[in-house]
Amino acid sequence: MILLRIVVFAIMAFLLAPIVIIILFSFHATPALTFPFTGFSWRWYAQVFTDSQLGAALVESMKIAFWTALLTLVLGTGASLAWLRLKRRGRAVIEILGITPIALPGLFLGVALLVLFAQLGISLSTVTIVIAHVLLTLPILLVAMKARLTLFDPSLEEAARDLGASQRQTFARVTLPLIAPTLISCAILALAISFDEFVLTSFVAGTETTLPMYIWSMMRRTVTPLINAISTLALLFSILVLVVAAVVGRMRRAAAVADRTKS
Amino acid sequence: MLAVTPIIEITAGQKSFGSMQVLHDIDLAITPGEIVTLLGPSGCGKTTLMRLIAGFEDMSGGGLRIDGRDMKGIAPEHRPVNMVFQRYALFPHLDVFENVAFGLKVKGLRGGELRERVQRMLKIVQLDNLANRYIDELSGGQCQRVALARALVNEPKVLLLDEPLAALDLKIRQLMLEEMKRIHAETKATFVYVTHDQDEAMILSDRIVLMDRGRIVQVDRPEVMYAHPRTLFAAKFLGETNLFEGRIVGEGPEGLVVHTEGGVTFTVRAEAPSRGPEVVVSIRPESFSFDPATGDGRHSVSGRVEDIVFTGSRSFYTVALQNQRRIRVQVQRSAKHRMPARGAEVALFWDHDDVAVLPIN
Amino acid sequence: MLSAGKRMGVVLATPAVFYLLVFFVAPGLLLFVYSFWTSVAFRIVPDFVLSNYIGSLTSPLFLRVTLNAITIGLSTAAIVLVLAIPVAYYLVYVAKSKLILYAILITWFSSYLVRIYAWRTLLGTNGLINTVLINLGVIDEPVKAFLFSAFAVAITLVHIYLPFAILLIVSTFSEIKQDLIDAARDLGTSFLGGFFRVIAPNAVNGLLGAFMLTFILVAGDYVTPQMLGGASGQTTGLLIADQFRKTGNWPLGAAEAFLMFLVSLAVYFGMLWLCRMTGISVKRRPLEKRRAVR
Q1: Count: domains in chain C
Q2: Which residues form a coiled coil (chain A) (predicted)?
Q3: Which sign, positive or negative, has the C-alpha torsion B231, B234, B237, B242?
Q4: What pLDDT is attached to residue C287?
Q5: C 207-266 → A contacts, CB under 8 A
Q6: What domain range includes position C151?
Q7: SS3 string of B258-302?
Q8: Does the distance separating the beta carbons of A155 and B89 come in below 8 Å?
Q9: Dist CA A195 CA A133 (whole Å)
Q10: Burial zone of A180 (CB within 10 Å; 0-12 exposed, 13-18 middle, 19+ buried)
């Protein structure tokens, strides 16, 4: 047991150490990325916020992440609700189509989409990047939803109908609220995946530059704490998104109770 | 029964799933305000019958009227009935208050009246102090009360209950049965109660609808069904009984005379089954007695006590007759009489009013 | 009512199904068609030739980089599995530590490129590991071999794909109740015995799934080997990517992509077969063919 604990903590240290060091050296006063640590400075962060190219890439990435999450949410919600209503064969179609892309590397999806866009004469742009990203995020949503939906008790929908709710009311008041938390957390996950996606993007981006592509071009040229600073901010962003998701989930519950005691 | 318009009336009801017919020729009329139990083994069609009434399944044939209105093509949300689901189907994303308020809210009720009605209902089921709890913060018994309140707050003409106590343990089950009787008295709704548990059925019901393999076998008050089962199935399903295969040999001044395989002759005050003369005689364990005063001591058989199970107020005896045929006897503890011990030779007495004669299947 | 629900289901599924047909199935098929076309003077010409496949399979370069990709994939997936199991086991059965779970989530959410970058700075000649080792007096001069080696590639890939594998295995273990381990211990197995006799056989499908997913992702990952592997860093993925981005011979790239896909399938069935042969995964025999026990 003690041995297991030591092993687990060693593995966790291995996972966290590089990230901690990246963050640490983002505050380094000199461009060197080695010990001894020669003093704290915010200079790299200042540089991040004055780099206009970087800013443009960041905006581009956020735009793509937003649309990817939205499209994933819309398509995924439809497919999830359909899954609940369909019988075995219909479900199989959704599952096979929706889940296989996970088992293919981004490279494969990237070149396939590139060929499609070339054949159809679609020029590469922000839109093609979003289309590609949804191909990664929709399957993840569907896998997570499938696990959630198999636990969904169909008698809840029947109970709502029995209590006088129409089909639409049942959907709005029972089905949707029940699956919404999973849908939302999947959409947030989609946001994060899209924000970080690199390989697939590199095939369908055309002349667009996303944040990962910008980091990539910088990384190839040089090693500088500026990259550490960008990385730290990106990580902070991801954590923020996760925290927001958790807080929103908790707040809804409190709000319901508060509403009633007030009125 | 009085000549009141039935609240539920099913005539020649049929239901098939594909080629499987699960309900045959259902004729049933339920009087307003009564508690009716649909009782039967699993797969007898009782749950399907309830789902037909609720509107979750369409009838394959026959008619269904609720409160005088034909229910053909009427969606579940437009029927004046509400259901308590087997595993409650309480909404996990809503708290107790919101669960109970659900039906009223979708009907458009808001504000003070909504709050008042929900709170009144929560008081009836004694949950007014738990209104802010979520479902996963409740015990099984509490969930049960929420499910009842959620249905009853809509003031349904009929409350349908689908094995509502199946998920509870024995102690709470008895408590909830009494609770349900109290709530029924308070709300005066009609209860249609599905169960496979004969005890629940007998404690709760005004009438029992006994079902077997998609058909209604017998509809009667619990005490009548217990004392006068009309079929072998009814006798076996409701309570414990001793069955003797036999043959009607004649009719005396006191009733039918039946010779049975145990070598015992029974006299039965009843009409002979239409199919005869081969019959089965049924006599409940508690109808036997060691007291010669029972039934004037005219009907008796002797045997030897093989086994005694003592459960407090009652004792269960296994008595072996000469031909090794065993009889189950249940006797009330009594200070007056000394109870026979294991191995004792005894005589068993019974009153011929307590004997039922049934057709062989 | 039922049929109305079903019709509603079809309507709701249509957008997603349509999307996947157009942007997943169609491109896949098109890529397959492309793999039989030819590229003449940078122009792609519809054709039906097997030369792309034959050319790839007889090219020493292709065979070498594919073998490299498979080696990297298998070894990384194996290491990932070995490391992920104890962590997942710990999280599910020993201590349901929220802190560790969050730490895993954060690593998983931290950027792919950043992690490559991190290991690059850590392993470089002026990198942290070399500096620390020199200061400690373990080595006299920086070890160049840390970076641009199979070792650097492996450690980075493990770091990138371990968190996801842990999460997958946690969900597999979660379906196996603690009672089973307790029962096994009660019946006299050791701690490890309980794992191998009870948990592993019940989790084998989930573990195999985690292994295969890691393998596919790692074998297809050409960026990490390219950045950290130096001369040893060329894999099939890079070859394919270059066909599309530099050389412009798309049909050849398409054929190579499908060969890569076939290799993944072969590895999957190979693993399945291995699990059956070694008895880790049990295929139930038909009832009537089972050995009678008296």
Answers
A1: 1
A2: none
A3: negative
A4: 65
A5: 212-213, 216-217, 219-223, 227, 237, 240-241, 244-245, 250, 253-254, 257, 260-261
A6: 35-285
A7: EEECCCCEEEECCCCCCCCCEEEEEECHHHCECCCCHHHHCCEEE
A8: yes
A9: 9
A10: middle
Query: Which residues in chain A touch residue C212, judged by CB atoms under 8 angstroms apart?
Result: 103
SS3 content of chain A, % helix, strand, coil (to 5): 80, 0, 15
Residues 6+ apart with CB under 8 A from B321: B262, B263, B264, B301, B302, B303, B327
Chain C neighbors of A108, CB-CB under 8 A: 220, 257, 260-261
8 Å CB contact between B39 and B201: yes
- Can you state the angle between helices A211-221 and C112-123, rounded to 10 degrees? 20
Contact A75, C15 (CB under 8 A): yes
Residue in chain A closest to B151 (alpha carbons) equals: A163
- Check residue C245 and report its DSSP letter: I
Tell me, what CATH number does C46's domain have? 1.10.3720.10
- Domain annotation covers residue C187: yes
Tens digit of each residue's pLDDT, chain A (263 residues): 788 899 999 999 999 988 988 888 888 887 777 766 777 888 888 888 888 888 899 999 999 999 999 999 999 999 998 988 888 888 888 888 888 888 888 889 999 999 999 989 888 889 999 999 999 999 989 988 887 888 788 889 889 999 989 888 888 888 888 888 888 888 888 888 898 899 899 999 888 889 999 988 888 887 788 888 988 888 888 788 778 777 766 665 555 555 555 44
- State whether C23 and A131 contact (CB < 8 Å): yes
What is the C-alpha separation between A199 and A210, in angstroms, rounded? 12
| Partner B contacted by A253 (CB < 8 A) | yes
Residue whose entry in the numeric block shows the structure tokens 């019959």 = B279
Please report whether residue C23 resides in a domain. no
Taking an 8 Å cut-off on Cβ atoms, the answer to whether A253 and B134 are in contact is yes
Q: Which residues does B191 contact at the CB level (< 8 Å), separation at least 6?
A: B34, B35, B36, B158, B159, B161, B180, B184, B204
How far is C-alpha C294 from the geometric centre of its chain's CA atoms? Answer: 45
- Asked if the model's pLDDT at residue C121 lies above 90, the reply is no
Q: Which CATH superfamily is domain B8-227 in?
A: P-loop containing nucleotide triphosphate hydrolases (3.40.50.300)
- Residue C1: per-residue pLDDT: 43
User: Under an 8 A CB cutoff, do C90 and A8 touch?
Assistant: yes
User: Of A18, A147, A203, which is closest to C118 when you measure between CB atoms?
Assistant: A18
Chain A residues in contact with C237 (beta carbon < 8 A): 105, 107
Residues 180-239 of A with CB under 8 A from C: 192, 196, 198-199, 202-203, 212, 215-216, 219, 223, 227, 231, 234-235, 238-239
| Rounded alpha-carbon distances, angstroms, from residue B72 to B57, B60, B63 | 11, 11, 8
**ipTM rounded to 2 decimals:** 0.85
Claim: this prediction has a pTM higher than 0.80:
no
Does domain A52-262 sit in CATH 3.90.1150.10? no
Q: What is the mean pLDDT of residues B167-186?
A: 85
Q: Where are the domains of chain B?
A: 8-227, 240-359
Q: Is B175 exposed, middle or buried (0-12, 13-18, 19+ CB in 10 A)?
A: middle
- List pLDDT tens digits, range B95-135: 899 899 988 888 888 888 999 999 999 988 888 899 888 88
In this structure, are residues B282 and B328 in contact, taking their beta carbons and an 8 Å threshold? Answer: no
Q: What is the rounded CA–CA span in Å between residue B219 and residue B241?
A: 20
- Both structure tokens of C97: 């530590």
Domain membership of residue C190 (yes or no) is yes
What residues 135-174 of chain B have any CB closer than 8 A to a CB of chain A? 150-151, 154
- Phi and psi at residue A121, to the nearest 5°: 70, 25
- Considering the four listed CATH numbers 1.10.443.10, 1.20.1250.20, 1.10.8.640, 2.40.50.100, the one that applies to the domain covering B240-359 is 2.40.50.100
